[in-house]
Amino acid sequence: MEIIADLHTHTIASTHAYSTVTENAAEAERKNLQVMGLADHGFKSSDAPHIYYFINLYRIPRKLGNVTILRGVEANIDINGNLDMDEYPKIFDRLDYAIASMHASTMEMGHTKEEYTAAWLKVIKNPRVDILGHMGDPRYPFDIDTVIKEVAKAGKIVEINNSSPETRKGCEPVCLEIIETCKKYGVHITLSSDAHFWSMVGQFDWAMSIVEKTSYPKELIVNSSVKNLEAYFNNREGKGKIDF
Questions:
Q1: Facing residues of 188 across strands?
Q2: Which end of the chain has the least Cβ crowding within 10 Å, N or C?
Q3: Long-range pairs, 230-234, Cβ under 8 A, ≥24
């Protein structure tokens, strides 16, 4: 399976990551990726960049070498299903795309399955959200069938995060159930590295292996072709066209 875009990478703007935009883009080009997304953490993460970082993202060129750069964010979800970036709607709206994820700095563990389910259901309705990040984290259990059914209705993307086995122990059976349920409802997915160092950009080995176990339809894998990327990103209401 060919993957031509990595939509979840971090830079030194997120202070627990260790590479620059140009270092990441150079690795993306070495690995023959055509698109790379910048998804540094929303401002309420303990390691997040200042909100001015997101104001100024337009300064980063659309192209670095032969790689198209998408300017985004990995926004943080709270237990009520709100996102930190929603506090700055004008800034949020200027970004190319948004991943929404649950992180320990903004989402406590120990809530009920029903509470986490309700949080995801609210996030799905947020028009600024494109991708639901590393949903397979077993620390935040939710009703997978209920949530994925709503993802399908909303036309959102589910991320299969290549870093999850290392950073979210016990995730594999949860991720497999999520992928199978996404296939059942015809949900678009994306395979992402969640790179925190330049050499990780474009690493999809685990994500690819678990997706291939389900014989997932290529046309539902958003980052398997430029055509699929264009079909999603250039048909969103209220967003400008991106020249891939």
A1: 157
A2: N
A3: 232/130, 232/157, 232/188, 233/70, 233/96, 233/97, 233/130
Tokens of 202: 């474009």
Amino acid identity for residue 63 in this structure: K
- Residues with Cβ < 8 Å from 7, sequence gap 6 or more? 35, 36, 37, 39, 70, 72, 97, 99, 131, 159, 190, 192, 222, 223
Q: What is the pLDDT of residues 94-129, one digit of tens each?
A: 999 999 999 998 999 999 999 999 999 999 999 999
| Domain 5-233 superfamily per CATH | Metal-dependent hydrolases (3.20.20.140)
Q: What would the pLDDT profile of 31-75 be if each residue is shown by its tens digit?
A: 999 999 999 999 999 999 999 999 999 999 999 999 999 999 999
Structure tokens at 187: 């949900």
CA 3 to chain centre: 15
Which residue spans within 48-116 are E strands per DSSP? Answer: 63-64, 67-76, 97-101
- Secondary structure element (H or E) that encloses residue 29, with its range: helix 21-30
**Does the predicted model carry a pTM greater than 0.85?**
yes
